[in-house]
Design goal:
The chain has 272 residues and is of the alpha/beta class. It contains eleven helices and nine strands. A seven-stranded mixed sheet has the order 5-4-1-6-7-9-8, with helices on both faces. The two termini are 30 Å apart.
């Protein structure tokens, strides 16, 4: 069941939503001097080359982040988007033109926001990806890497120390059971860590296959929660994933307003 490799999908429109939201959450956590922990339950390898064969094979990055990158001079004054682009530019110190030698996955975005006293916990089950993530972050003592199932690990490793922090969960949803497992895991983590920020990514699919409503219904029992979505095409069973969303428990103050304002500016560039 472990066939999913994010290298084929890195930098797509779902990554844009996920990474803008994650960055906004981490920036809010940094606003206080108290340390925090960032947990990634399905980390992937951390860095991706958007000029690589896997990325070019699907073309998803070309329809996603690379559209923003090509217009970066026009986007540099937009709140949150400018920080996102600057973060990518920082790990590409030489001028890359319209291509990208390094694109940060969520672990790399977490690493970029960690301060001296902050921590990150990365989980990855794929037998190949775990070697990459270990190699990518082995020199950073603030980051621990676990070769384990992210659903199981998210519950086992919470509540963390320190208690301030965020859990990002972005499973591949390769099988329908992942939806129920994600919901079950989020609720279990929330019971164990009621003050933690939990951010669950989910796809928006064709109407006959879409289960995003199930996630919002089941997690809607948590009072302090929001949903942020980005759609780049009209819903169609033939199109596949026309957008995605982030369901967030204990969102930082005005998170939805800030992320949605950024999405409003960039959505026209991502339209199919």
């Amino acid at each position: 069941m472990l066939s999913y490799r994010h290298a084929y999908h890195a930098g797509n429109h779902a990554d844009v939503l996920k990474h803008l939201t994650l960055l906004a959450v981490l920036q809010q956590l940094r606003n206080k001097d108290k340390p925090f922990v960032a947990i990634d339950s399905h980390s992937g390898n951390g860095f991706y080359n958007l000029s690589s064969e896997p990325a070019r094979k699907t073309g998803e990055a070309a329809q996603g982040f690379l559209r923003l990158w090509q217009q970066r001079d026009k986007l540099k004054n937009i709140d949150l988007v400018s920080d996102y682009l600057a973060l990518v530019a920082e790990i590409n110190p030489t001028d890359t033109g319209n291509s990208i030698g390094n694109y940060p996955g969520s672990p790399a975005i977490m690493q970029a926001q960690l301060r001296a006293g902050d921590l990150a916990i990365l989980m990855e089950l794929h037998s190949t990806e775990i070697d990459h993530v270990r190699d990518n972050f082995k020199r950073d003592s603030r980051i621990s890497v676990h070769h384990r199932d992210g659903f199981e690990g998210a519950v086992a490793l919470t509540p963390p120390t320190p208690r301030r922090g965020v859990l990002l969960m972005d499973p591949a949803y390769e099988i329908k059971a992942d939806y129920q497992q994600a919901i079950k895991t989020v609720l279990a983590v929330h019971r164990r860590w009621p003050t933690g920020i939990i951010a669950l990514w989910y796809p928006l699919l064709g109407q006959s296959r879409d289960l995003s409503g199930l996630i919002k219904q089941k997690l809607g029992v948590v009072a302090d929660s929001i949903s942020i979505e980005l759609s780049v095409a009209t819903q169609s069973d033939e199109f596949g994933m026309h957008g995605s969303g982030m369901y967030i428990i204990n969102p930082p103050w005005q998170l939805a307003e800030r992320v949605n304002a950024a999405l409003k500016k960039i959505q026209p560039l991502l339209q199919v």
